Amino acid sequence: MTIDAADLKRMFDAIAGAIEADKGRLCQLDGVIGDADHGIAMALGFGAVHDALASLDLATTEPTALLNTAAKSFLNAVGASSGPLYATAFMRAASAVKGKATLADADFNALFQALAQGIKDRGKAELGEKTMIDAWQPAAEAAAAANAAGKTLSESLEAALAAAERGAEATKDMIAQKGRSSRLGERSLGHIDPGAASAVTVIAAMKKSLA
Ligand code: ADP
Ligand code: MG
Q1: Own/partner pairs for 5-8, CB < 8 Å, 24+ apart?
Q2: pTM of the predicted protein model
Q3: Is the CB of 41 under 6 A from ligand 1?
Q4: Residue 46 has pLDDT above 90, yes or no
Q5: CATH number of domain containing 129
Q6: Were 194 and a residue from 29, 37, 101, 150 both cysteine, which residue would form a disulfide, CB within 3.0 to 4.6 Å?
């Protein structure tokens, strides 16, 4: 499968739609261990990406430029901590596919790895600290393994989604150690991390739109 700028735009539009539909649940999850704005922040961010990409001429826009546009608009729209995390992810993804007019499966895998690594580098969270990294890192590892085993992009994203779902579920048993919810200490136990939950929504929309 080959992915071009139009496919990437469709992917971001799918993410924006899925996040908008999930906004209430994400705010609810954040209301339990944070400040109840995560759904709003993510919807504002991906809504801004949707609007920014709508004004691009896709025939003359390379994936790198599209991803940098996504990064800039997400960062400008989001004041919450998810803003710089996803903006860095998209900027790193842009670098990962620099100079390519279209993306083969392996290129998209590189883009996906860069997303997760960007969030990790920006937020400095490790596995088990109850953040979106607990969904993104296993997802990236599953995608890399599937890609290395010669699986199709669709199969790789399916493996990534399953890993992200397991990772998000596992945050229930973790004590928050990064961000706002870390102030709760042990009281964060028993609740899913909202950023890990939204990561699952993002990855599910990616998979659906690219399958
Ligand atoms: P804020 O906490 O500023 O209100 P959001 O509500 O948008 O921001 O996002 C909260 C989510 O951000 C958390 O559920 C967590 O997944 C993620 N997060 C917070 N800090 C970090 C970090 N340092 N690294 C990775 N993810 C983080
Ligand atoms: Mg919040």
Answers
A1: 5/56, 5/58, 5/61, 5/62, 5/63, 5/66, 6/58, 7/209, 7/210, 8/63, 8/66, 8/67
A2: 0.98
A3: yes
A4: yes
A5: 1.25.40.340
A6: 29
